[in-house]
Amino acid sequence: QVQLVESGGGLVQAGGSLRLSCAASGGTFSRYVIGWFRQAPGKERERVATMSWSGGRAYFADSVKGRFTITRLNAKNTVYLQMNSLKPEDTAVYYCAAVFSYYGDRLDYTGLEYDYWGQGTQVTVSS
Questions:
Q1: Residue in 113, 95, 93, 94 with CA at minimum distance from that of residue 32
Q2: Chain segment 1-34, per-residue pLDDT in tens
Q3: Where does the chain show beta strands of DSSP type E?
Q4: Closest CA to 36 of 103, 85, 109
Q5: How many beta carbons lie within 10 A of that of residue 58, not counting itself?
Q6: CB atoms within 10 A of CB 71
């Protein structure tokens, strides 16, 4: 019943930008931490960015810090991942995920703790 759907992936040249969207249905998803993960072939899943449900805190992996921005619109059950200055090493399948949290400023959940996952959207950055 609860679904997360990613969109916005595609092919972009290095240095370009993409905006990924995560649309949630089946609930309001208030008090859910929303995270973006990515996985490239042969590599482990990586936590890219996380937003607490209060919107007051955000986490970014060192590999994307300064280039990616996460925005949450709770009224529309939508989370965006703005990706700028893309590099070939950003190529991966990107997933959004959600985990319930009692604490509005907590964002340190592991990937195994997330309750819901989208199907992923492919991002390919060409050199």
A1: 113
A2: 789 999 999 999 999 999 999 999 987 778 889 8
A3: 3-7, 10-13, 18-25, 32-39, 46-51, 58-60, 68-73, 78-83, 92-100, 116-117, 121-126
A4: 109
A5: 15
A6: 14
